[in-house]
Amino acid sequence: MQHELPLDERPWLVQAVLATWAGLLAIIVVSLGGFDDPVFTQNAVVRLAAVAIAWASLAWYFSERKVALGRRMRLAVALSLIAHTLLALMLVAWRLELLDIELPDELTLVEVEPIEQPKLVIVREPPVTEKPLFDRPLPTEQLAAQTPEVTREQTEATEVTPADETALDPTELAESPAPDLQAAPRAAAPVARR
Question: CB 124: neighbour CB atoms within 10 A?
Answer without folding.
Answer: 5
